[in-house]
Amino acid sequence: MFHRLIGFLSLTMLTACTLAAPERSTTLADGEIFLQAPAGYCVDMVASRPSRDFAVLAPCNVMGVVTDAPDVVGLVTVQAGAADSGAIALDEIALRDFLITDTGNALLSQTGNAASINVLSTQAFSDQVMVHFADNGPPPVAGLQNEEWRAFRSVGGRLVTVGVRGASAAPLQDGPGASLLKLVLAGVRSTETPDS
Question: pLDDT digit string (tens) for 154-165?
Answer without folding.
Answer: 999 999 999 999
